[in-house]
């Protein structure tokens, strides 16, 4: 099973389980997340690129994978991705490098799936 398939299936299964608890606060947080990345004054693509960079600085591998997937769907180019990686590593420092390695691996996997 590919990294992408495994991540997407697990994320979907657990989100369904979490949302089935019908917890109002959690549902509102999930909704806020969805609405934050919707098209607005900034494009959805720009917001996803920002989300990816922030997730790398915060060192959240699940968030990084999610935003990499969205960036891929929205047509982010390799050149744009390299700049996102550059900004995140500069802002986050060398502690981001292990996450950068995994991000590059996942980005390559996304490209090989299609």
From TrEMBL:
Coiled-coil residue windows: none
Protein name: AhpD family alkylhydroperoxidase
InterPro entries: AhpD-like, CMD-like
Domain Carboxymuconolactone decarboxylase-like: 27-105
SUPFAM superfamilies xref list: AhpD-like
Key word Oxidoreductase present: yes
Pfam families named among the record's database cross-references: CMD
Keyword annotations from UniProtKB, A to Z: Oxidoreductase, Peroxidase
GO molecular function terms noted in the UniProt entry: peroxiredoxin activity
